[in-house]
Amino acid sequence: MILVLGYGAVVLPFAAALIALLSDLFPRTVRAGFFLLLAAGGGVSVVAGVGCLLTGGIVTGQLGLGLPGLAWHLRLDPLSGFFLAVTGIVVVAVACYGPAYVRQYQNGQQPLSALGFFTGIFVAGMQLVLLANDVFLFMLAWEIMSLSSYFLVTYQHQHAANRRAGFLYLLMAEGSALLILLAFGILAAFAHGLTFGALRAAHVPVEWATAAFVLALLGFGLKAGLVPFHVWLPEAHPVAPSHISALMSGLMLKVAVYGFIRFVYGLVVHIQWRWGLAVLILGTVSALFGVLYAIMQHDLKRLLAYHSVENIGIIFMGLGLSMIFIGTGHPVLGVLGLIAALYHTLNHALFKSLLFLGSGAILLRTHEGDLEHMGGLIRRMPQTALLFLIGCLSISALPPFNGFVSEWLTFQTALQVSVLSNTVLRAVLPVSAALLALTGALAATCFVKVYGVAFLGRSRTRRIRHAREVAWGMRVGMGLLALLCLVFGILPTLTIRLIESVPRLLLHRGLPSASVHGWLWLTPVSARVASYSAPLLVLGLVLMLALGYGLLHPRRRRAAIRRSHAWDCGFGGLTPRMQYTSTAFSMPIRRIFSPVWTLKEQTEVQMDDREPLRVAGIRYQLQISDRIWPLLYEPMARGLQLVTRRIGRIQTGRVRTYLAYSFFTLLLLLWLVR
Amino acid sequence: MAGSLTLWSLALLQVLVFIAGAPLLTGWIRRVRSALQNRAAPPIWQPYRELAKLFRKNVVLADEASWIFRTTPYVVLAATVSAAAALPAVATHLPTDAIADVIVLVGFLALARFFLALAAMDVGTAFGGMAASREMMVASLAEPAMLIAVFTLSMTAGSTNLSTAVGYILHSGLVLRPAFVFTLVGLLMVAIAETGRLPVDNPATHLELTMIHEGMILEYGGRHLALIEWASEIKLMIYGVLIADLFLPWGIATRLTVPSLLLGSIALVAKLAFWGGLLAMVETHFAKMRLFRVPEFLNIAFLLCLLGLLSHLILEVAL
N or C: more exposed end of chain A, with fewer CB within 10 A? Predict the structure, then answer.
């Protein structure tokens, strides 16, 4: 029964993709039908996922599709159930948001049918990855997901920048697929068969297991956007339509996390602490660099894409901690780390999708993606502004929202170092926790900037001044995500009780200590070590707010509160251009951490011709670019070019030579296969 | 049941005393500072008079102010009081201590700061943005330093719950831990930066360009300003009590009997008087730093806290 629901989660988006092909004939009906089917697919996958988490059962199935002799093996277990539920929630929200959002593309240069078709295929591909139980199906679904999202990135291919971003994305996606295939290949060499069960049963020597782990870390890390493989992310995510950005940033990166967890915890099984250390270091670096690069951006969607790098880093920190504790023989703490990582996965899917949908709402109404041109949107789009604020609070890891809970759990995991006997590990873990604290504080700075510059203050351009609130469907989509951000922030204990069945499957133990004191209290290790009661805190906050407002707000006075001009130092005439901009806001951070970026700053002062001491104008230019390009990718590209040019010499252009090549290759092969 | 009711009412009482007493600490600091600077001092209850005056006054809002600006004072006060509630001040093992540990406390202070910075940007002036940007810069360097300090202590005590940590330190007696020395100095520096005191920020300045915290609340007036002022007085007290709890917990009531509670209150007053005197000394002896010296100051705090952590790991755990 539950597996049928799982099939539904794949088939319904696929059906949606098929009917989207008709959207040029009956645009209105098809659009409604498409998003209904997509929402149904999302809903079904939430039901299947949550059902599987509640029962903790494993169901497998086999379909006679695909190549002869290689049937598709499918399996729904708590791990895939968790990710199915996460995907489903975001897909439902996007399906509510979509109808009003895609209307803008109706009479555009590109057919709407292409957008719908590839969206459906993309979602179906992601769900199929989660259900796959053999290497063949996994790679097939993985490629469906990667290739369909390539077409979504390049949907507006009239802009050269989008084509370039699409190419970069395709290159990285294929590189990642190749590495993952090699990682599976190593395991498969020791196994009888290609199903995951066979791979798990294989006895892989430690050296080969380590090689497979490294390949998997690189492959899934590339797709998830860990530093230094993150370069495609800030290029590709912003150029796609916003609801697709939400799906890509909120979900596709999570599918990569799923792949990594499945590979390491589900297939390799014998986890070494050294692997965990590598994952922890990569995660910490990604978190810190992601947020530092994000602060410097002023394009909203690009900034959000860099924040995805940060959050993926935090998820991998949790995984790294978990692997370290498992590898050193402390499985209970390993469970805690895994739960922290999974919790953050859920949270990031929610708030990042919410923020991308919010930025899409701004784009739709103002056609403006640059923070420097926004301002005062809270008065034009009040409800979007409120929902976006919830997203900002959640991603900044502020209590009582959901982002805080998962970071708190990560902190609690990192603080349990006293059980470790290795002194290096004992020093590295708290330092990484400290860097996580720095990351959190910088993220808060970044989102004060985003919200303050975009939504508060005065409108900087005419287009912003004439913005209107978006359609109700879009607000419902965002509202659903915002509500869940709050719910998962307030009820962490119940959430953990659900997530618990994942470690129960992978590590054969749960975390009973977390919920031993009832749903009010979250006590990850024991009540003595740490406790947190979000419901009571929220109750206290709400009571205090109500009390303060009730006591202080004048009831009798009918006259409105007096309004006046803000303080202008007595000169008068404040203009929107006098406000702090996004670049100005991040200037102190830029100055403190300046070695992190490649900065090109130019100031030209133009003097007045008639009065030599009077400044006529100042021109300031700032260019910030990613250090990784000149350090890693440009040398790599140059080397590749050099090598290919060398190899290119064998292309003579004469048929005889090519025939000779074929002949000798054939001989060689015959000799080899003999 | 009656026992738990007594406990909860005691906890509530502790919070009420905490927030009602906070302006007194500010008055005390001003008095000591005046004495050190050979000035005639205002009465110690002057902050209460100021709050009362502000509560009576009407609110004037800037033209551009949205609902963020109007709700921020309430959110800031509520978040700060929540942070205060999590802190064992007079007695340990009250039920409110278990609701939030020290990381949550830091999180609530961050929540208050987030809203204050947003409110500063809400009015759309350069001052607000400038102050918000600087405040967030200071905070993003101070918060990790503070968390490292807290981590060191919680690793020593094996708990991030403040009550448990206090109990552990009391139980282990007077031991000179090198980690604590580094951490104490680092945490003091962080506290000075976070509460907006000299030499990082000047709470009494009237020059817009030199101030951070005061720049953010430039547009506030009436009851809104009163709430924010009160919240920052509570915040000052939170840092005092936190440092006292972690480094000088002696005297705090661990059993809920009348004499021990009395002793706890007296000890708390003495410790806070000392903390206020220390702040006043620092404020008298140092001039305000240039803004871009502040990161260096905070980096030193960060390094000291990190040194504390490492010396804990190397010197204490290894033994």
Answer: C
Pairwise CB contact (< 8 Å): B313 & A565 = no
**Contact with chain A for residue B247, Cβ under 8 A:** no
Asked whether the beta carbons of residue B78 and residue A565 sit closer than 8 angstroms, the reply is no
Residue A116 included in any domain: no
Which string of b and e fits B142-170 if b means at least 16 CB within 10 Å? bbbbbbbbbbbbbbbbbbbbbbbbbbbbe
Q: Which of A483, A509, A535 is the last residue of a domain?
A: A509
Task: Flag whether residue A596 sits within 8 Å of chain B, measured between CB atoms.
Answer: no
Query: Is residue B293 pLDDT above 70, yes or no?
Result: yes
CB–CB contact B64 A457 (8 Å): yes
Tell me the ipTM for this assembly: 0.94
For residue A550, give how far its alpha carbon lies from the nearest alpha carbon of chain B (Å): 11
Q: Which residue has the higher pLDDT, B208 or B239?
A: B239
Q: What pLDDT does A126 receive?
A: 94
Residues A482 and A610 in one domain: no
Q: Which residues of chain A have pLDDT under 70?
A: 554-559
Share of chain B above pLDDT 70, in %: 97
| B100-136 pLDDT per residue, tens | 888 999 999 999 999 999 999 998 888 888 889 999 9
Within a domain: residue A413? yes
Q: Which residue of A has its CA nearest to B145?
A: A434
* B130 shares contact with chain A (CB less than 8 Å): yes
- The C-alpha of A453 sits at a distance from chain B's nearest C-alpha, in angstroms, of 7
Q: Determine the pLDDT at residue A38.
A: 93
Give chain B's mean pLDDT: 87
Task: Tally the domains of chain B.
Answer: 1
Tell me whether residue A144 is in a domain.
Answer: no
Choose the final residue of a domain: A474, A489, A509.
A509
Task: Spell out which residues of chain B touch residue A378, defining contact as CB-CB under 8 Å.
Answer: 66-68
Total number of domains constituting chain A: 2
To the nearest whole Å, the CA of A562 is away from the closest chain B CA by 5
Nearest CA of chain B to the CA of A97: how many Å? 26
Full residue range of the structural domain in which residue B63 is found: 2-317
Confidence of residue B1 (pLDDT cuts 50, 70, 90): very low
